[in-house]
Amino acid sequence: MSLTKNLRLVMNKSNGLRQLSTSIDTNYNFKTLKVTAPSEYVFHVEFNRPERRNAMNPTFFAELRKCFEQLKYDQDCRAVLVSGKGKGFTAGLDLTELSQMASMDIEDVGRKGFQFQRVIEDYQTSLTSIEKCHKPVIALIHGHCIGGGIDLITACDIRYCSKNAWFSVREVDVGLAADIGTLQRFPKITGNDSLVRELVYTARNFTPDEALKLGLISHISEDESALINKGLETAKIIASKSPIAVQGSKINLVFARDNKVEDSLKFVSAWNGGMLQSEDLIKSAMASMSKEEATFSKL
Ligand SMILES: CC/C=C\C=C\CC(=O)SCCNC(=O)CCNC(=O)[C@H](O)C(C)(C)COP(=O)(O)OP(=O)(O)OC[C@H]1O[C@@H](n2cnc3c(N)ncnc32)[C@H](O)[C@@H]1OP(=O)(O)O
Fold this sequence. Notes:
One of its GO terms (molecular function) is delta(3,5)-delta(2,4)-dienoyl-CoA isomerase activity. 50% of the residues lie in helices and 13% in strands. By secondary structure, it is α/β, with parallel strands linked by helices.
């Protein structure tokens, strides 16, 4: 019996699978975000406060978290693009919020400290929802990407920018050590500790070429429209692959970044002990053999 026939037999056997019905809230109406679906299984999340240069306020953090917690389980989503409307990606933390936080009307330092921690943890959770979303997230940066913007893009899977982009780890210039992801993720996802430290300690602006050399981004497009096209092209390719394989890869890459090789190898063997039984394996193998495109059920 040919290998393809054999694979078909195994496929038919597994057809008795019942889809679990998942009920997720798929309401993507937000004040600070615009969410569209430019192609099948591809979502586009745009920061939508251009008049404030997409500065990140409490509503933004709350909505970003809600959006990515929904996308995580949305069966119609396999890849996500993230970009900013208007002149740039984001101006980072909304500074009016920072001054309100600093002038909080609580006398006792301990109690005030707890309130600060609560806000910081809340914002951390918001950005980490991007990393915890099983679907690969592609950041498309044009214009300014400052402070909280760097925290945000370092939680994304892939980062592309346009020639007019510029970056700054601006926190020391507003008097704080970055606290919602940059200091934790930036050194891990790039390859030049010395340069990372220089950028963090000086808060100076850096260019797409520097970001590319550093490994913060992996592609520079001519302009914003070419950037969106490039992101969409990559997202479509990702969306055409087995969602079991792609999402399992993201989960394992994040685990491997944060754990020892030995533990990560154990994790992936346990993971694939389950996932290799998926129909996607047979479908992908059959498609490879027959040089045809496979289509995969929703996940
Ligand atoms: C718990 C702590 C968690 C996280 C902490 C993160 C720290 C950071 O994010 S530090 C970085 C803070 N951001 C900045 O320092 C950027 C400040 N903005 C700028 O440098 C510029 O505005 C610009 C982004 C380079 C854009 O310049 P331009 O295009 O010339 O626009 P402007 O006229 O300057 O701005 C238009 C409008 O937007 C308001 N705005 C800009 N950035 C912010 C911001 N970060 N927060 C609040 N508002 C901002 C600006 O005031 C203007 O408002 P008008 O009312 O029109 O004057």
